[in-house]
Each structure stands twice: as C-alpha cells, then as structure tokens.
UniProtKB/TrEMBL annotation:
Gene3D superfamilies recorded: alpha/beta hydrolase
Organism: Lithocarpus litseifolius
The protein's name in its UniProt record: Senescence-associated carboxylesterase 101-like
Main location: cytoplasm
A biological process term (GO) from this entry: defense response
GO MF term (any one): carboxylic ester hydrolase activity
Lineage, uppermost ranks: Eukaryota, Viridiplantae, Streptophyta, Embryophyta, Tracheophyta
Tree of life domain: Eukaryota
This protein's UniProt keywords: Cytoplasm, Hydrolase, Nucleus, Plant defense
Every EDS1 EP domain range: 348-562
Annotated Fungal lipase-type domain residues: 127-207
C-alpha cells in the first residue's frame, strides 16, 4: 500500500497571510491609537480602545503601553487564572465555552480584569455590521482583544455572518488547556485568531517561562529578520516560542520591540529567505521534514547556527511528529458533509422500499414488521448505516459548545427530521416484534429524542393546514415518528380490554388509553399530519381500527368515527 506523503504548509500560509492588507490595516489602527494616546495622555496602566470604520471593514483596536504590559504580566499575580466556575455567576459571558466533555477552563486574571474594566463601554452592536470585523491589539491589549473576541463567539452565526478576525501583536497567552481545547476543537473558532510574535519580544513568552499550564490557540505567525512562518499545533507553538527568542540586550526596550512590529508588517510581504537552506537536507529528505526545515529557517532557527542549548534536529523531529498528529486529528474530525452523498443514496433506497411496500398494499412499516419480502431484509443495511451516521452527528452536536452545536443542528435539521420520520418506525417495528412494550418511555434511542427536540425548538407557523399540505399529503411522512408505537400500544390495549385474564383496573386503564389514542389520531388526520399509508387495509392501524370498532359497537359515535367513514378521501386532501 502506498503511504500518503505529508507536507507542511506553514510557509505558504504565512505568505498568504502577509500578502493580505488585513495585517497592515490592523497594525495601522494600533499605531494610530498609540499616536493619539501618546500625544494626549501619556503612559498608563490601562488598556485603551478605539473603533475605526474603514470602507471595507470595521477595526476595533486595543492598545496597552509596552513597558507596562511586560511589568504587569511579570509582576505578582501576572500568571494567575480565573476559572470558568468562578465566572459562571459573576461574569457569565463565557459559559457557552463549557461542554459536557470540556466542562472547565481558565483565563488569565490580568487580561480578564482589564477586559471587565472596559466591558460596559465596549461596542455591543458590532455584530450587526455587515462589514467584516477585525479586532486587534498589542501586548496586553492583544490579550484583551482575544478575550473580547471570545465573548463575541456565542453571538455570531457562522452560517450567515462573516466571522470576526482577531489579530494580536506580541500578546501573552491567555488561557489554560481547557480554553485551548474549547477553541482549537472547532475550526470556525480557531480560525478567528491570528497571533503575530516577533523573535525579539519577551512578552508572549513570559507566562511560558513561569508555568507550563498556559496553552496557545489559533494560528501563530512567528517572525524573524529572515522571514516568517505559520504554525497551528499548540505543542509546536510552545516549543518554538521559546526556541526562537533571540534574547539579545537591545530587545529589552519594550518600546523598540513594539515599533519593530511595524517594521515587520511593512517588510514581510517583500521578505524572502535569503539564506540557502538546501544544505540542511538532500533529495532523500521526506517532504514533511524538508518543509519544516525551511519553515524553521524562516523564523531564524537555522541548523549549525544555534546556541548549544538548542538541538535543532530534536525540534525538527518533534515538529514533524506534531504535524502528523495534527493532520490525523483534522482527518478524524466528524464532518457530516463528507458523507452526505452516501447518506442520500441510503435514504433513496429507503424511499424506493417505501414505494414498493405501498404498491403491495401494506405500507413499509408493516412490510418490515412482517418480513413479507426479501427487500425487508435488504433494508436493514441501509437502516444501520443511516442510524450510525445520525447518532454520530447528534452526539457531535451535543458535545459542541452551544453556538457551534446550534449551527450544526440548524444546518442538518431538515435531513435529520426526514431520517427520524423514515427510520424510527422501523426501529419501533423491531422493538415490538421482540415482545417489548412502552417504546416511548422505555426503548426510544436518545438521538431520536434529540432530533425531535431540535425540531420542536425551531419556530414554525401555527394554524389550520394550508392548501399545500393537503395537496402534498399523498407523499408525506407521518410527522410523529412515534406514531406506530402509539398504534402498537393501542393494539395491546384492545387485547387487554377484551382479554378474559385482565382485571377491572387494567380494563379501565386500557379504555382510557384507547380514548386518548382516538383523540390523538383524530388530531393528526385532521391536520394532514399522517401518511395515507396508514389507511392501507393490511396496515396495523387499520387492524386496530377494525378491532376498536368491534369493541365500541355500531352505536358508538365520535369525531374519529365520523371522519373514518370518508378516510379514502384523505389521500386526495379532500377529507
């Protein structure tokens, strides 16, 4: 078997990023805010922000004085966390990040305090703007920009709204592994963050040296005088942040480091790697390793030119291994759309099966239940494949944070509803064939319950059936996917009511259940919410109706008995 070759695309991604005006626009906004503050106020420990309206985008820039940022982060408590459980009641704007699989995370305390100090005056209507939104900041201002972006993720509908882009310059890490997992697990969120880090800047590395619990998320654009490259894997980013720090005396001036980002932004789109790195590998070097060597050279990690405490070969090997893991993770992420064509094929098979059963005057529920033809066995494969698909999709949506899960639910609601209405009756048939009872309370699988819940949470028009419903009734699926479970329970009630071994209490309970079922059926038929197949003479529903008529006698009259006199008109919408 041929092994798939892996490549590293960090250099190409970096070239793409720096070729866009967005990096220049973000830095220009920060620099303009810095110029304005330095002329009017001078240094302070506070974070300032300003909204810049451009013709093609809206930019919200956060500025923090470089020297103060470094001291603030390095000082006592600079690496402290605030946990999500603490924030849950006092500042609940990040609760949506918690999931069943990832219930807890923590945010850097100084960054959170600065954010909350200006929260009340931050613009709240930015999401209503049709223009793209860029949120940017330097040093601790970048941390606040990241926290602000996090607070917006819950409200963004990524299906209809352009996602915000947060660009930070020299920002410290802001969260623990829980926060990193909450963001990195979902590409729609992770892609909202781009962190630019200079090899001369100590601030992004301060919390790494203090403690290992801080973890990065998003894409990191690491820069040096030789060029730049992008990295996404958190472990690789941590390793390279420390390995690429130049640590020379002149970069101890925070203001010079701050200004150097402007030089980087100006020069990056013209930057080429002028140092020949081909001596570091030959034609037998695997493409992934060769690509990583080139990437590392672009950010200043050139073989034979590193201090003795940096083993470049170890870094190359570790980076290659992490790239493989990241590629595998991305491959394993459940994406419903990749299997959509196969799902459509299996649903088409079920539609055909349903049609054949109808032509046989029995309906697909009873055909499957009675195993009348070989096709009743063939359909089991389609049923299992579809069930596995939708179980996984529902499980994935439930695990995801609220906004991401909601987007997934909305996108697949129609398909999930069709699947539930088509397949659950077959699940019910298997359940009652096994001699079991009370499917709805005792045997209904969780994913059907969730799919129905999603539909019920979706606003829909109310009122009398419209003309289109009547006209299309011949082809509809029964709206209540548990309809046949109600039918089976009604058949059981008929047996209990007429059985000689039933107690008076059992008979009364059965009679009450039958009256309840009668009203339930009448409502469905009146609203054209059931498939006409239920009226086929060999269906379980018609079996129940004949038994029920016999029990109640010819003198019994109700809304349903009157309606059933003309049930043959139902399929034409003229009942």
């Amino acid at each position: 078997m041929t092994q798939t070759q892996l490549f590293s695309s960090g250099l190409e991604l970096a070239n793409f990023v720096v070729s866009l005006d967005v990096l220049h626009d973000a830095w220009t906004a920060i620099w303009n805010l810095y110029t304005e503050i330095s002329q009017n106020e001078g240094p302070s420990s506070l974070v300032k922000f300003k909204v810049f309206e451009r013709t093609n985008c809206t930019i919200i820039a956060f500025f923090a004085w470089p020297a103060n940022s470094k001291d603030y982060v390095q000082g006592n408590g600079g690496g402290d966390f605030v946990s999500s459980s603490t924030l849950k009641k006092s500042f609940p704007f990040f609760n949506f990040l918690c999931t069943k699989d990832n219930p807890e995370f923590s945010i850097n305390k100084p960054a959170l305090e600065l954010f909350t100090s200006i929260f009340d005056v931050l613009p709240k209507s930015v999401m209503a703007n049709s223009k793209p939104l860029i949120i940017t900041g330097n040093s601790l201002g970048g941390s606040v920009a990241s926290v602000f972006t996090l607070s917006l993720l819950e409200k963004f509908n990524f299906l209809t709204t352009k996602r915000p882009l947060c660009i930070t310059f020299g920002s410290p890490l802001i969260g623990d592994e829980g926060l990193q997992e909450a963001i990195s697990k979902y590409a729609a969120w992770s892609s909202c963050f781009l962190h630019v880090v200079s090899d001369q800047d100590p601030v992004p590395r301060v919390l790494i040296s203090q403690t290992v619990v801080y973890k990065p998320f998003g894409t990191f654009l690491l820069c040096s005088k030789l060029g730049c490259s992008c990295f996404e894997d958190p472990s690789t980013i941590l390793e390279l942040l420390m390995a690429t720090y130049s640590g020379t005396p002149e970069n101890q001036d925070p203001n010079l480091v701050f200004e150097s980002y402007g030089t980087f932004v100006k020069d990056l789109n013209r930057k080429v790697i002028f140092m020949d790195t081909t001596e570091s590998f030959d034609c037998t070097t695997p493409p992934l390793r060769a690509g990583i060597i080139t990437q590392l050279a672009a950010i200043g990690l050139v073989p034979q030119q590193q201090p003795h405490n940096i083993d470049i070969n170890t870094i190359i090997t570790k980076t290659a291994n992490q790239e493989k893991k990241l590629a595998l993770f991305k491959k394993q992420v459940f994406d419903p759309s990749t299997q959509l064509n196969q799902v459509k094929i299996h649903m088409a098979n079920l539609e055909w099966y349903k049609k054949v059963a109808k032509d046989n005057k029995i309906g697909y529920y009873d055909s499957y239940k009675n195993v009348s033809h070989t096709s009743d066995l063939d359909v089991v494969k389609d049923m299992k494949i579809l069930t596995c698909y939708w179980e996984e999709l529902v499980n994935e949506a439930e695990k995801r944070p609220q906004t991401v899960g909601a987007s997934l639910r909305t996108r697949w609601l129609f398909g999930g509803t069709n699947y539930r209405r088509m397949i659950e009756p077959l699940e019910i048939a298997d359940y009652y064939k096994a001699g079991k009872q009370d499917y709805i309370n005792q045997g209904r699988p969780k994913h059907y319950i969730k799919l129905e819940q999603w539909l019920n949470e979706t606003p829909k028009p109310v009122g009398v059936p419209n003309e289109s419903m009547k006209q299309n009734v011949a082809s509809i699926l029964t709206e209540d996917s548990c309809f046949w479970a109600h039918v089976e329970e009604a058949l059981i009630s008929c047996k209990l009511l007429t059985g000689t071994g039933s107690s008076e209490m059992e008979k009364q309970s059965s009679r009450d259940s039958l009256f309840e079922f009668e009203n339930y059926v009448y409502g469905l038929i009146k609203n054209y919410a059931v498939s006409p197949e239920i009226f086929l003479q060999r269906s379980s529903f018609m079996q129940w109706w004949r038994e029920y008529e016999k029990i109640m006698g010819t003198s019994y009259s109700s809304d349903l008995t009157k309606l059933m006199k003309d049930y043959d008109k139902y399929a034409t919408g003229s009942l």
